[in-house]
């Protein structure tokens, strides 16, 4: 989760512009694609953050590479280049996703389990834990962690709900050694 004040400001501005234009979904999709591109080609982030490449050339790269993206996304990317803040782009995307999810009443959750969850289990977990964090629903990322022995551990932002056998045993051990 982003802790950068700079990233939060850019993400907030991007969110407000996208929301005002009723383009939250489209901008979110463009940013997801941007994240994918940066993950697949980390050299691009290095290039767009490099001090030896001119700002105009970097802006030209952005215009060419992300030609199909929403103009507001391209403008923010070019602004990050101008202000020599392109290294914050990943944090901006994360913060935008969080703002967008909050405004739409859902949150991202990581569910650690010993095996892949079925759709029915995902739905039940989403319904149960969404109420605990005052959201309508949760977008669940399932991570397999065989060290849990059994049960699940759910992480929603900074909140962790641990009902795994491993967690219960650790709490029991702690209580017994007091």
Describe the structure.
With 178 residues, the chain is of the alpha+beta class. It folds into 2 domains: 5-101, Peroxidase, domain 1 (Orthogonal Bundle); 105-176, no CATH class. Strands 2-1-3-4 form a 4-stranded mixed β-sheet, with helices on both faces. It has helices at residues 5-20, 24-40, 42-49, 55-65, 71-82, 89-103, 119-132, 165-176, and strands at 106-113, 137-144, 152-156, 159-162. The chain is elongated. The chain contains 8 helices and 4 strands. The longest helix is centred in the N-terminal third of the chain and has 17 residues, at 24-40. Helix 2 packs antiparallel against helix 6 (89-103).
What key attributes describe this structure?
single chain; 178 residues; alpha+beta; Peroxidase, domain 1; 4-stranded mixed beta sheet; 8 helices; elongated
Helix content: 55-70%
How many angstroms does the end-to-end distance come to? 34 Å
Overall geometry: elongated
CATH topology of the largest domain: Peroxidase, domain 1
Strand order of the largest sheet: 2-1-3-4
Low-pLDDT sequence parts: none
Strand percentage lies at: 5-15%
Any idea what the radius of gyration is?
Answer: 20 Å
CATH C-level name of the largest domain:
Mainly Alpha
**Sheet having the most strands:** 4 strands, mixed
Give me the count of strands.
4
Question: Average pLDDT, to the nearest integer?
Answer: 91
């Amino acid at each position: 989760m982003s802790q950068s004040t700079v990233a939060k400001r850019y993400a907030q501005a991007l969110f407000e512009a996208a929301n005002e234009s009723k383009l939250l979904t489209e901008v979110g999709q463009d940013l997801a694609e941007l994240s994918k591109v940066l993950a697949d080609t980390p050299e691009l982030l290095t290039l767009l953050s490099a001090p030896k490449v001119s700002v105009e050339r970097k802006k030209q790269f952005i215009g060419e590479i992300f030609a199909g993206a929403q103009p507001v996304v391209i403008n923010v990317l070019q602004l990050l280049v101008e202000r020599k803040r392109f290294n914050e782009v990943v944090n901006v995307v994360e913060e935008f996703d969080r703002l967008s999810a909050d405004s739409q009443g859902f949150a991202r959750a990581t569910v650690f389990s010993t095996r892949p969850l079925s759709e029915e289990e995902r739905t039940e977990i989403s319904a149960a834990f969404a109420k605990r964090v005052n959201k309508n629903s949760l977008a669940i990322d399932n991570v397999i962690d065989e060290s849990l022995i059994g049960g699940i551990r759910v992480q929603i932002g900074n909140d962790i709900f641990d009902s795994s056998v491993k967690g219960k045993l650790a709490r029991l051990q702690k209580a017994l050694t007091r």
